[in-house]
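During the reporting period the student researcher (J.K.) took over the structure-prediction task from the postdoctoral fellow and processed the backlog of single-chain submissions. One of the processed entries is reproduced below for the supervisory committee.
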Amino acid sequence: MDRDEDLPASEPCPTFAKLASFTGPSASTSSYAGPEVEVRALASMATALYPLARAEGLRGLSAVLEKGNAGSGVAEYCYGCAAELLRDEDEGIRLGAVRLAGICVEKIAMREELSGDADQIDLIFLQLSSMARDMCAKVRIEAFDALAKMQRVSDGVLLQSLSKKMIKTDTGSAAGKKISPKLIFPCAAGIFAHGIEDEFYQVRAAAYKALGALAKLSNQYAQKALDLLMDMMNDDTEAVRLQTLRTLLDMATYGHLSVQEKHMHMFLGILMDANVIVRNAARKILGFVKLPKLQMFKSALDGLIAGLEKDPEDQDTYGILFSIGKNHGSFSANIAKHLAKEYGI
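J.K. obtained the following structure tokens:
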């Protein structure tokens, strides 16, 4: 396995000390007689000298959180334990730490309101992003899985994850909002640009899945991510192409997929793919999206009809044609008038 670029020592990623001042469940509070006591014991084990003990501590913390009965603040405390081990020399420990961090993020995201500094979630996002460039492929996969669970991340930080070029604090981001200097971490820049180029297809697939999940948070991010996704529709691995299509379908379902004219040739090519699952996914996407131009609408219809002629067994094409016509009423009426005139109706 090729090593990813080492993170420069002069540009450390955010530590948990920056994320929250939470110091753990209080032993003096009677309501913490349940799982919180167990959390403190497992957290102590996670800092043990031997890797096996640290691994068991991390697994135990993950199990406690997954039970769903931990008290307020426990998720933040567990995240602090995980953050301290993200740079452990043992890759198994790093994997366990990222996995625990992902569970913590999911628990934190379930809360209606995030207490404390508004930058807290952004800092967590950046720290997990840095792990998407770990030397171990399993850690990179787990990091992208954790990022897919993030909520309420700011536009500037999201856009930075797509670009290898650092967004400067004095010029502001493409979203028109300045990024706080403390949120500038080169180790997290362009992690998705790196992820979709990873040598392992499992990592690439995980990156695409995370892209789709995060696209629900920002329309501008979704549009930028689309260019990356479309570039990878020619991936050599079928599993990656399928995951990319699933991601695009999710984006279309939530109204975050804006297909441009430059993307149409790719969709039309996929309609002729040899894999029936790939063809089905491409048709479903076209059934959801709103095409901005009449010519794109006509191209979509022609592509679907050509695909049906080539593969008559793809009977769901008729339903997709109906959906496209329904979603583009003015374009459908335009074509109907043209045909009526042509045939003298």
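The committee noted the following: The first helix runs from residue 16 to 19.
J.K. will present the remaining backlog at the next meeting.
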